[in-house]
Amino acid sequence: MRKMTKKMMCYVWSLFFLASCGQTDLSLVPEESLITPEVLWTKQDSTKMRQCIAQQLEELAITVNEGELLAGKINREERFLLKSSAEYTYDIIVMGDCELYARGVTYNELYNKIGKIAGIGTTYTGLRYDDGTIVGKPELAFVAGDLTGDRASSSAWNNVNQILNQLNNKGIFVFANVGNHDWEPRQWDDGSYGYTYEGHQSNIRSIVGVLNIYISAIRAVLYNGRAAYFSNLDSPLYMSKSSISWWNMNINMATAAPVYGFTYKGVDYVVAPRFLFDPEGDVTFSSFFGYGPARFSKGLCESYLSERSRKVNANKRIYIQHYPYNCSDTWWNDYYSGRSASTLRSNYISAMKSANVSAIFSGHNHSWSQNALSTFTDYTSGYTGNAGGPACFLMVRVSSTRGVVYVKSFNTNMF
């Protein structure tokens, strides 16, 4: 006798269920009442899914390998030796929420805005702060999340990289990580669940997108002969699992957003995703089809920050993440432990103090603010995308001995 396939088994199971309810005429049964998890499973195009997963894994592996090779080259370079008695000062830029293709932000508009910012100190040499002092050329730039409103698209991430690469081309090395617009939520505003099969694919594209921005920056560092000023450079740490067993109806898909760090001229930088408590999200059978929640556990950022502070003895450390301390409790919702937002904030302050963090830079709120917290200050950048308006960002003077010397809000209307 021919072996019964899983699809046949599901069909028989459905007939048995209907018969037990006294209903055997399938033409009288609404189609949606026949949709069971098993039937949903058999309707998937398993061949196409396997091909998509294999393609994504290959792209991720190639990108990760390139990032690790470049990081290795940086770390093998002869170091710029800081004199213990000397102070090294330089400027950095912090941008929040480029949001390409969201809220009316177009490629051309964002390209032109970032092009202006990239020209600080070269094309635009006469810029002055309100107090009359000259604006110098920055050496680093950071984007504190929300890079694109079309995170599921590889071409959107490529376009973001092209736009930001204008900074690298001018010798301003730009680093970035994901915000809430770049990562799958636990649940959408309409009540539907995240971390479906499509949501998992989207997260992988975001990981690859962040890695490519990192790779572009490191290439520019090497090309411009600036590797000696970097040390303790980590390639982005992330988590990704992508496998499906069709016969066992088993799903093994999970992602955790990337985090990485480096030291530049004596100041240590940690580039984090949405916030310190960003979790690992495991796709469950129900969330795969979008009718139930995913499963969440502790992510990478807490342990990474703790481990980095133990290994890298930096006098000053700057932490970049997407959510500011003062954003609403909704955004500070903890996916995995049920801790309140107030508890998370308290734990956040403790973690930053333990890691010797002297300043935090964030985005998300679309407005400039600063918030003194314990032994450090949380600075929030304005809205860089800002369709139809100027690109807002922060100009920051950094010192190897004092940390953040000053922070000034700036925008492209001031050019």
Secondary-structure blueprint of this entry?
Elements: H1 6-20, H2 37-42, H3 46-76, E1 89-95, H4 107-118, E2 140-144, H5 154-169, E3 173-177, H6 197-223, E4 230-231, E5 237-245, E6 250-264, E7 267-271, E8 280-283, H7 285-289, E9 295-297, H8 301-311, E10 316-320, H9 341-354, E11 357-362, E12 369-373, E13 376-380, E14 392-399, E15 403-411
Helix pairs in contact: 3-6, 4-5, 5-6
> Helical stretch count?
9
Give a quick account of the main beta sheet: strands, pairing sense, barrel closure.
Answer: 10 strands, mixed
String of helices and strands: HHHEHEHEHEEEEEHEHEHEEEEE
The Rg value, from CA coordinates, equals 24 Å
Structural class: alpha/beta
| Helical residues, percent | 25-40%
Total beta strand runs: 15
What fraction of residues sit in β-strands? 15-25%
Contiguous runs where pLDDT drops below 50 for at least 5 residues = 1-30
Report mean pLDDT, rounded to a whole number.
88
For the termini, the CA-CA separation is 80 Å
Q: Specify the overall morphology.
A: globular
Word description of this protein:
The chain is of the alpha/beta class and 415 residues long. The protein contains 9 helices and 15 strands. It has helices at 6-20, 37-42, 46-76, 107-118, 154-169, 197-223, 285-289, 301-311, 341-354, and strands spanning 89-95, 140-144, 173-177, 230-231, 237-245, 250-264, 267-271, 280-283, 295-297, 316-320, 357-362, 369-373, 376-380, 392-399, 403-411. Strands 4, 5, 6, 7, 8, 9, 10, 11, 12 and 13 form a 10-stranded mixed beta sheet that branches. The protein has a 5-stranded mixed beta sheet with strand order 3-2-1-14-15. Helix 3 (46-76) runs parallel beside helix 6 and helix 4 (107-118) runs parallel beside helix 5 (154-169). The radius of gyration is 24 Å and the shape is globular. The model is unreliable at 1-30 (pLDDT under 50).
